[in-house]
């Protein structure tokens, strides 16, 4: 049997590598862009396991909140809080209870929209309260509060039945958003140079707060300004960050039980980039692994997206 000379074999390998490099890496998700009819901006923030999402859209100078049914490809506008210039819908649970905020952007109060009726709550001592997500049983709500100068923030978990707040991670910018069935909460915190946290220099990090109050902070190797936004029952976290070239990219990650600060190296399969987008912001992840959020193009136009794992990629 004739053997291929080593030089020719090497040339063949180079040729095969070049051919492989001419094709993009296999995508792990199928992306669907979502735009509210006539809107100049569309965003999705929260989701249910049945394919319903909450978000907002800009129609001219008017912001509206809505529910989007992905199976029916239908939008349902939500009512505004009477007298409030802006009503935000950010979180939704499987029972269809929606949370968010209402106000003028300076002194907003948290809202709960259940079967068409609004409920309200305010974190004592803070100028603004914004709800971001709600637990499956409807008892716990996550969110953020800030002072009147918009320079001091705190994350919170609000117990609806007890009407009590648990505040944590005060900083110049803290958001608590996703919550799963285990009562794990994710979000982001900005650490100043003088803030001590084991192994974490000054920057903006994602965090995972466990039910017992234990905190894990994480960054992305080679990236910055990490935002964690959603977590599902299996512990998968989604969010977004700036990569080394300054591009905002979505991600999927799972944290180890320790240490308390982790720098993650994310493989390509765990990065989310809407095709043609200048930036991708992942906001929510369902138990089935569907991810939703917002993407923007090079012209600064914002659109929503839903990313569905391809078979074998969940």
Topology overview:
Elements: H1 6-21, E1 29-34, E2 41-47, E3 52-59, E4 62-69, E5 74-77, E6 86-92, E7 98-103, E8 109-114, E9 117-121, E10 128-134, E11 140-146, E12 153-159, E13 164-171, E14 174-179, E15 185-191, E16 203-209, E17 215-220, E18 224-231, E19 237-242, E20 248-253, E21 261-264, E22 271-272, E23 279-285, E24 291-296, E25 302-309
Parallel strand pairs: 17-21
Antiparallel strand pairs: 1-25, 2-3, 3-4, 4-5, 6-7, 7-8, 8-9, 10-11, 11-12, 12-13, 14-15, 15-16, 16-17, 18-19, 19-20, 20-22, 23-24, 24-25
Architecture overview:
- The structure is a single chain.
- Helices cover 5% and strands 51% of the residues.
- It contains one helix and 25 strands.
- A five-stranded mixed β-sheet has the order 14-15-16-17-21, with no helix packed on it. Strands 1-25-24-23 form a four-stranded antiparallel β-sheet, with no helix packed on it.
- Strand 4 and strand 5 form a beta hairpin.
- The protein is globular, with a radius of gyration of 21 Å.
- The N terminus is likely disordered.
């Amino acid at each position: 049997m004739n053997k291929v000379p080593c030089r020719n074999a090497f040339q063949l390998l180079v040729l095969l590598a070049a051919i492989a490099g001419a094709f993009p890496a296999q995508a792990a998700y199928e992306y669907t862009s979502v735009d509210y009819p006539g809107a100049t901006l569309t965003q999705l923030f929260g989701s249910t396991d049945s394919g319903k999402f909450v978000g907002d859209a800009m129609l001219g100078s008017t912001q509206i909140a809505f529910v989007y049914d992905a199976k029916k490809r239908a939008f349902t506008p939500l009512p505004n809080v009477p007298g409030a210039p802006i009503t935000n819908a950010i979180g939704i649970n499987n029972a269809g209870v929606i949370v968010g905020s209402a106000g003028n952007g300076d002194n907003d109060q948290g809202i709960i929209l259940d079967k068409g009726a609004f409920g309200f709550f305010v974190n004592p001592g803070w100028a603004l309260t914004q709800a971001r997500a709600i637990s499956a049983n409807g008892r716990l709500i996550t969110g953020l509060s800030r002072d009147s100068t918009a320079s001091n923030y705190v994350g919170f978990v609000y117990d609806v039945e007890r009407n009590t707040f648990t505040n944590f991670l005060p900083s110049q910018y803290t958001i608590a958003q996703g919550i799963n069935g285990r009562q794990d909460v994710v979000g982001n915190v900005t650490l100043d140079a003088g803030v001590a946290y084991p192994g974490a220099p000054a920057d903006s990090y994602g965090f995972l707060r466990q039910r017992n109050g234990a905190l894990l902070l994480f960054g992305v190797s080679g990236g910055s300004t990490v935002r964690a936004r959603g977590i599902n029952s299996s512990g998968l976290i989604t969010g977004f960050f700036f990569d080394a070239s300054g591009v905002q990219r979505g991600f999927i990650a799972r944290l180890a039980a320790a240490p308390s600060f982790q720098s993650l190296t994310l493989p390509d399969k765990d990065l989310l980039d809407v095709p043609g987008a200048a930036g991708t912001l992942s906001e929510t992840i369902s138990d089935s692994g569907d991810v939703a959020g917002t993407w923007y193009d090079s012209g600064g136009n914002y659109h929503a997206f839903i990313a569905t794992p391809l078979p074998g990629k969940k």
